[in-house]
Design a protein that fits this description.
With 233 residues, the chain is α/β, with parallel strands linked by helices. It contains seven helices and 13 strands. Helix 2 crosses helix 3. The structure holds manganese (II) ion.
Length: 233
Amino acid sequence: MKPIIGINCDYEEEGKQPYSFTYRDYSEAVVAAGGIPFLLPIIKDKSDVELLLKKIAGLLLPGGNDVPPQRYGEERQEKTVCVHPDKDTSDFILVGTSIQMKKPILAICYGIQLVNVALGGSLIQDIPSEVKTPIIHKDSQNKRYTHTVTIRKDSLLHKIIGTDRIEANSTHHQAIKRLGKGLKDTAHTADGIIEAIECRDYPFLVGVQWHPERMTGSPYHLALFNALIKASE
Ligand code: MN
């Protein structure tokens, strides 16, 4: 039976009727890997989230704006654009409950940062302001832009992708600073920026800083979704 994969929605209300949404790439990637996507809007009741998670086999945490720095004990810096407070509340309940329930999780971009902060880690609020690096991590102009990511050999990520180095896109301005409890960094760019994490004492919790859903034409990137589906079966 195909597993149902919950996809956490983004949320916007600026200048519009408030709406929850996800980019189609995410649901298409779940379908391509053999799962059934199911979109999750803002829900702020923990017991409702528990009930919902019992119906869902795995969880996909997509990209989005920034985690409010108060979550990791810092003041918001100029370049930090926080998610809506209702989404923030909902996201921490969703991630906290999912981790308690040991649900398989694939976290992407904002998703990896959310998992890291939910487990007590912190973030670099803006790479260009805080880190001296020749590598461009936020490329918004060139859709084909990639940088090289080196993957640790002793990682689940290496087992999934099956190679030491891959080309990955990059559209993030934040990154993991201090790792959350139980997390290992499993891939980096040459400047030391953390590009992937996983949790060892957990059935399947993998996070990547890039957007594999936009590169599923490559077996290396599709492999991440295949691994989530397999872990959710
Ligand atoms: Mn990057």
